[in-house]
Structure formats: structure tokens, C-alpha cells
What we know:
Layout: E1 3-5, H1 8-11, H2 30-48, E2 53-60, E3 65-69, E4 75-76, H3 82-95, E5 103-104, E6 128-129, H4 130-139, H5 143-153, H6 155-164, H7 179-183, E7 189-190, H8 192-203, H9 210-221, H10 227-230, E8 238-245, E9 248-258, E10 264-274, H11 279-301
Antiparallel strand pairs: 1-3, 2-3, 2-10, 4-7, 5-6, 8-9, 9-10
Helix pairs in contact: 2-11, 3-4, 3-5, 4-5
Amino acid sequence: MQRVCGTALVALLVWGGSVARAAAPGSGDPKRSELRGRMEERLARLASGLDGASGYFLRDLETGETFEKNADVVFPAASTIKVAILLELFKRSEEGSLDLTQPVRVDPDQRVEGGGVLEKWSAPYPSLTALQLSVLMMDFSDNFATNLLIDRVGMDAVGRRLSGWGLKETRLRRKMMDVAAARAGRENVTTPRELGALLERLHAGRLLGPANTHQAIEIMKRNEGTPIKRGLPAGVPSADKSGELEGVRACAGIVFVPKEGSQARPLLISVMTAYLGNDQAGEVFISEVARAGYEYVGRLARSLEHGRLIGP
């Protein structure tokens, strides 16, 4: 497993796979080195026990300490690509080229199944705004709502935005449930590092203005039952998005790890799987990686300089 550690400043410079390397926080302390080594072993055991391929990218956004495996390998994005659509919507709203409060025409002939709310309704559909459709897309992973929003913003526009933000591998190349396009090689794809970097920059306020940054994160916090959330103690907030396809499970988000005082310690988690022999095992793997990351960063968040633990 590759190891990459850096300061919080270095963390914000990670994009196309090249990473500036620096000493891990506390690397001069053998106790911290031992703790990190145990975390690496735990992640390696989880990966070796999965019947399939996996990649992950975990970063403590307070210190920049990072754990990764196959972080630059391209995986099917599944529904995690909806994060890019959400950000394009909000960015266009800030630029003045799209009104999130305007109703979007819902064409019954374009209805697709595979998850969500709209597939269970029949015409006539209610009047829904782009903002309301975005909530259906993110919190219910509604594929019909997603396709309506892709038509609204344009697939090529999403691609140009991602390129402008420095993402080289993350691409929206088909609508939801377009199996023919996938078979033709037009799969929606990303990497653990790039999807993680997208969420990291969102959290840092480097993609959207303060109001839209807050709204996007709050929308993803309400997304219930994701593999990441299932790996966390009850009540720990996580702004994330999951995705699933045959043989594929993925999830990425920002976990807000409690620490002393009112501030949380943000932990980035981006996990992807493919070639799964058992789809449910892929979800369990993501949950276990999230649990490992939470417990590791949570212990550090409660520790003093030499390893004494304080707080709950």
C-alpha cells in the first residue's frame, strides 16, 4: 500500500496524481509511528479480505495525514458522479446562468428506473425546481431526476467544469441507466483521489461561495444509509454520496469527527470497489474502512502531545 503524508497546505495541492511528500504529523515520535503502522495494517487486512478490487483515499484534513491504495486507478463512478452534477448546478447558479428556483419540465417519456422517487410516480408530475431535483438526486439517488438535471446543465458543460478544476480522469459520459452507452465504453468514471479532492475543495470553500458550499454539504449530510454512515457511530455527521452498479460499490464524503470544543475534525474518505464477487461485501468493506478511519482520527482528536487521551 502506498503511503502519502503531508501538511494541510500540501493536501490542497493534490490533483492529478502527483503529491508533494512530507513527514507525517508526529513522525518523530515512535508512538505515533506505531499507531500509524497499525492503521496501515488494518486497512491492508480489509483490502486483502475483499473478493474484488479496491481503492481508497483517506485524509485527515486537519493535519494532511493520508492513507491510500490505488488512489489514482480509474473506477466506475456509479452514482458518486452525481456530486459533479450538483456542483455544476450550484456553480451555474452563482454565475447567473441557471436559476435553481425555476421549474424543470418533467417529461414522462424520459422516465428511468433503478432508484429514487420519481420512478414510482406517474404523470402528471408535480412542478419541481432544479434545487428540488438536486435533493432527489443526492438524498434519494433518483436517476430520473439526475437525467433531467443532466439535460438542464449539459453533459459537456460538466466535463469542461471538471477539466477546469483540474480533474483529468473524472468524467460524466452517459446518463443514468444507459446500459448501451456503458457497453459501448462510455462509463462514468473517477478515481478515489480525484473524487476525494473534489470534496476536499468543496469543504474548503474553493469551488462555491459560502452559502452554496454550506447548502451542498447539508444536502449530502441528509443522505441516509450510505456505507460510510453505516460505519460511524450514531449521530456522527457525514456529507457523502454512495453509488452502486453490478460488481461495483463506491462512496465518498467528509466525516465530521467530534473533538474537544464545538469544532469537528474533518476526515475525507473516498472508497471504490470493482469486480466484486459479492456486492454486499463491497458495502461492508467501505463501512469498515470508514470505521477504521474514524477510530484512528478520533483517537488523535482526543489525544495530547505524548498520547494521553482526553474527552469522551
